[in-house]
Amino acid sequence: MKQVSETEAARHRAKMEKRKAVQDAEVASKKIEKGLLIVNTGPGKGKSTAAFGLALRMLGHGRKVGVVQFVKGAWHTGEKDALSTFGDKVEWYAMGEGFTWETQDLKRDVAAAEAAWAKAEALMADPEIGLVILDELNIALRYDYLDLEKVVETLQARRDDLHVVVTGRNAKPALTEAADLVTEMGQVKHHFAAGVKAQKGIEF
Amino acid sequence: MKQVSETEAARHRAKMEKRKAVQDAEVASKKIEKGLLIVNTGPGKGKSTAAFGLALRMLGHGRKVGVVQFVKGAWHTGEKDALSTFGDKVEWYAMGEGFTWETQDLKRDVAAAEAAWAKAEALMADPEIGLVILDELNIALRYDYLDLEKVVETLQARRDDLHVVVTGRNAKPALTEAADLVTEMGQVKHHFAAGVKAQKGIEF
Hints:
Number of helices of chain A: 8
CATH superfamily of chain A: P-loop containing nucleotide triphosphate hydrolases
Shape of chain A: globular
Largest interface: A-B, 96 and 97 residues
Number of strands of chain A: 6
Strand order of the largest sheet of chain A: 3-2-4-5-1-6
Structural class of chain A: alpha/beta
Oligomer: homodimer
Distance between the termini of chain A: 40 Å
CATH topology of chain A: Rossmann fold
Number of domains of chain A: 1
CATH class of chain A: Alpha Beta
Helix content of chain A: 40-55%
Order of helices and strands of chain A: HEHEHEHHEHHEHE
Radius of gyration of chain A: 21 Å
CATH architecture of chain A: 3-Layer(aba) Sandwich
């Protein structure tokens, strides 16, 4: 058991009292409520995983969640199976083709991206849905499968009570400019570099 | 509908064939399977959310998940309620006290961190559990509530089939050195700066 002296305890208390005052003032200064456009990008792990974590949070509050996968090859079998536990509270559409290097067919990729985007628009229009996850939409935008300007416009025109999360590397600047919250997942260390393979429950 | 010319389609195909060869070789080169020590750190959003997304993935594969919250004030009510849907597949312990600036009581914080760590050790010892989330453990380590060396040693001595995720800002170097996968969540843009308050389904 760590020993804490009275002096140390008093110093800690004084420091934390100050910190609490700052914290409280900061929380009180925020007043706006709005549906957020969230972008999870960067080369690190956790972009989609954090989006699905947010789905969990939203479901915990009883709201419905919609998911459109723009790249079917992105392994989300674990999440999909787990979310099926929530029944019709989750609408999941695996719409895209595989990764671009799997299909090697540009026309098919473009058609799949357009169908996925149509599904995304339908989910965003459904007032029962509180969160829409557009998984790997950034990939479809990066390869110009979709019209960037049109996509950003539609995202900006979303309902006030709808949160949207867009995931994928290399988010386009026009998208991050329109977003309320942008997180860059940076890769500090990755187990693939140490020869560890993709494992059930971690990568898929 | 986006028009794709034959030349464009052929060029795309050739590029993607090359890319697929590189990708396949890379996947084939990874052979190790092991329980990972994962650290989600950095000032951005998504550290805990990605950990809970991983829980979802693990549950989708039918494995049990254990969660220890080292800071009770961290709002995870949404996730907790949603994960309760999975019954005894999830063991959740909200063990810590509030944020340090809420309690202002160093002795109480230390005692709470030690109790939380004891619970973490028990979960890590349970062979039925495939993933243990040590939420905000980095905060307890940062304030020296726990013995860093002892914690890292125990994490390194984990079972071969156990994945552990540690979350929280300011991960200690000794911990990231011991980790297999470290992701730094970087804050590019945050809606709090625009006066938006913490909202149900997003922050908690």
